[in-house]
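Step 1: inspect the first sequence and its tokens.
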Amino acid sequence: MEPREDITRLIREWQVGDQAAEQALFDALYRTLHGIAIRCLQSEPNAGSMGPTALVHEAYLRFANAEQISVSDRNHFLALAARVMRRIIVDRARARKSQKRGGNDVKADWNDDLVSTAEDADQVLAIDFALEKLDQQSPRQAKLVPRLR
């Protein structure tokens, strides 16, 4: 069942809250959605471990959880689905990139006990002096070292 009129009818029924129509719509367009997912993943060389089936299912969940979607016909629905799939791939890429930059690092609170002896204080002052000198000699390299200011 994929005549355009049937798909348009399912879209209209889905938009008024008919869950059976929603399921029938995705069932009827599953192969087409799967093909779109394959093309989306091929166009993104770093799409990660997500496969086309998982991408279609994730897109379905986003559609199902959306508040209000205005879709006029089959082509509009498929274009919207392609956009949702690309957004999923981009969101996953951003999440991976933030993890590489320490997105999951545990934040540590300052503890006054870090400098508990005179020897510790001397080391902290020596490091600070070395960092100040590095900042004077090579400001660009000094930016690589995290500093408390």
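Step 2: inspect the second sequence and its tokens, then contrast the two.
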Amino acid sequence: MTGLSKAFIHERDQKIYAARAAGASPIDIAKKFDVSVPTVNTAIRRHISQLNRTAVMDYPEVLAMELDRLDKLQRAIWPLTQHRVIELEGGETIQVEPDMKAVDQALRIMQARAKLMGLDVERIQLHTSTDTEPPVPVLAGSEPTPTYADSPENEAKELIRLSMEAGILGEAEGKALLEAGEIVDAEVVDDE
């Protein structure tokens, strides 16, 4: 078999990807290009990888361009969001209140900017509690949740309690299981 050039493979990958994106099945694509189905799947993965690499390389430029557009929009409407004085034709001046539609637009622009920059994401701080053994991650400022993994019996009892709260187990069945005796390997064992 003769080697295929990179340019040929690249062009074929694009055509295979386009056919798949248009809804053709891998089997139909394989027949059309006289290749195997695994070759079709490999070509699609290769093309998607190339698209992802290009997107990663282009992201900073696209982000800068979008932020610049938002800045220009905001600068254009910002004066309308302020109290201002307008001079009429006869030299008379009037006080104008902020345009609430412009204020709404400015807020939307600010939200779009925050979203683009990732500022709209809620930040969660975790720390490791040293009060429990083994240490468990907890939300900053909150109390550690007790761990029931210290014994299979405690874990099973907690699962029974949670099942009762969720309505999976009825109150009577749950209490009966909890009061039945020792739980060994998640089975209730009679005390007698």
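Step 3: confirm your contrast with the notes below.
Residues 170 and 176 are 10 Å apart (CA to CA). Residues 127-187 form one domain.
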